[in-house]
Design a protein that fits this description.
The structure holds two protein chains of two kinds. Chain A is α+β, with helices and mostly antiparallel strands. In chain A, 16% of the residues lie in helices and 43% in strands. In chain A, the strands form four sheets. In chain A, strands 2, 3, 5, 9, 10, 18 and 21 form a seven-stranded mixed sheet that branches. In chain A, strands 1, 4, 6, 7 and 8 form a five-stranded antiparallel sheet that branches. In chain A, a hairpin with a 5-residue loop joins strand 11 and strand 12. Chain A is elongated and about 95 Å long. Chain B is an all-alpha fold. Chain B has eight helices and two strands; from the N terminus they run αββααααααα. Chain B has helices spanning 3-16, 29-43, 49-66, 68-71, 88-113, 117-147, 150-175, 179-186, and strands at residues 20-21, 24-25. Chain B has a two-stranded antiparallel sheet. In chain B, helix 5 runs antiparallel to helix 6. The chains are: A alpha+beta, B mainly alpha. Chain A binds chain B through residues 1, 3-4, 7-8, 10-12, 14-15, 18-19, 21-23, 25-27, 30, 64-65, 67, 109, 111-112, 281, and chain B through 77, 79-80, 83-84, 86-87, 90-91, 94, 97-98, 101, 105, 108, 124, 127-128, 131-132, 134-135, 138-139, 142-143, 145-149.
Chain lengths: 294, 191
Amino acid sequence: MKSNDRLYKTSLILTGVLIAVGFAFLSHVRLDGPVFLEHNINLHVTEERGGFDFPVSLNYITNADDNRIVTWVEFEEYPGLQVNASENEFAVLSGGREVQSFDDQWGRDFGQYNVREVFLQMNQLPELEEGEELLLTEATVTFSDATTQTVDIGEMIISSQDTSDAPLSFSFSSSTSNGQMAVTYNAEEELSVLGMDAPYFEQFSDAVRLEVNGMDSQEIIGQMVQEGEQVNVSVKRESSEGSPDFTVFSSSPELTLITSEEEEHTISLAQAIQLEPDYSFSTIYRYLRSREEI
Amino acid sequence: MTPGFKKLFWGFLIVNISLSAGLIPVLPAFVGWLIILDALADLEEQIPRQDLRFVFKSVMVLLVFSFGELFQLFGSDVTGISLLLQFLPIIVLLIELSAFHKLLEAVVRQYDRKNRIEKRDKAVAKDKWYLLLMGGSAVTLALSVSLVYVPVFVASIVLSLTGKIYLLYLLYALSKEDLELELAESVPQTG
């Protein structure tokens, strides 16, 4: 009976110590509120596509037991920008007709943290001149409990693009879930390739390789493309590592060409290179520490 | 047959099963704890009151906690109120462990009083297994709340479930014994 008594007391003491340590740990790692990540997003809007070229999302980290969701997003620099925002991607795609609830949120749990995505879809195109850019750095986010938070989102650049006089016609495109993608165009006339780049590319060039007709983006400069020939643009992931500095990238590769009449054209791919951080409890914890959020 | 232990068996079974009709619980946990309190009152005829005093108090606390289940009827999520409440299920588990360990200990004492050495030793061994299962469950559950690590959480659930089924088996086995009869048997025959 004495050994049972010892076992009973040991269970109580050990569990008590674990509760005390656990409580101290949870108090330490707990966030005061959602923390939005820094984003580097480059978007092109075209009249033909009627909005963003690809789905855009803002990522944030919150406590795993936070059952609020983002219901509305407004941008400080452009308050009139009509945007549907939802943590349910389908609700955004359906134009906000689907009612979202917490059960619909697709957040991913990493220990005490939950990484959420707020999907955005524009209702109305911003009035931008050809070549004009709209830089968005701050957003006011409204949550389902009617609280609002103004957050730094990094950089979201929206520009308009007129593709009507492009010397390339779109043929087909494909993409895979691991970040590979390929877009094929047909040359409408004889062209020379001036270069291939992507906004913010220097920040993630170790992770991604850009190719044109199977050649590296640096080797392709000056290559000729005859009328009727295909131009294959591909994006290949070089490593499975996440984005550096916990920044979320969404960047559309741009192919610059020159015609025989010396007319320069820059064509943005209708797909974006999407890179997100390597999420785990420890990487999120270190990131939040570096931002002095905990 | 010992009606006290039989009631304890059914009470503990009701505490651990969840029957509801839509949002309305048909057999809420507090019904089970009330049956257990009634069973403990019956047991006082066989086991000295002072041996059951701690068990009574612990079951009263568990009864109060079980009313928390009813809050869900009105859509109130009490778990979100405070960080400390994340540890509430572990505290409830520890109180339950304490209550039934002390009950098994009272049975051991009773066997001891009746000089039933073999029965006492078996009851001590059963109590040890119960403590190992439920103690292990409490420790792993405390770890999993902090770490949010699924394998540890699954281990705690498996241990807790095994411990509860084992306790049901023990209560059922005790309901088949008559402690007073054994007391009569243990008295040396004279004349």
